[in-house]
Design goal:
single chain, alpha+beta, four-stranded antiparallel sheet, 2 helices
Length: 90
């Protein structure tokens, strides 16, 4: 990565602000779809992305998807959810 890229990170469950605190400056949090938390934000470089993933895995988040998106795609959720999924809490 050489330039800032907008990424979407989807994790299983409804993550709390406490759980996501280190990421809140860089990402917006979306809970509009039942059973998932969607993070959208600009990633500066590969090291930044690795740090975000390291935090999420360290706190036990179940990652569903991670990928670059266009700004227009930031307004839609394309991942299916299951209302029977459990919440992610710290």
């Amino acid at each position: 990565m050489t330039a800032t890229t907008t990424y979407e990170i989807v994790i299983k469950g409804r993550a709390t602000a406490r759980f996501l605190r280190p990421l809140l400056d860089d990402f917006t949090v979306d809970h509009t779809q039942v059973g998932v938390t969607r993070l959208i934000g600009d990633v500066r470089d590969a090291a930044h992305l690795h740090g975000v993933v390291a935090h999420l895995t360290a706190v036990g988040a179940e990652l569903i998807s991670i990928g670059p998106i266009t700004p227009a795609a930031a307004n839609t959720i394309t991942h299916p959810s299951n209302p029977n999924e459990t919440s992610t809490q710290s």
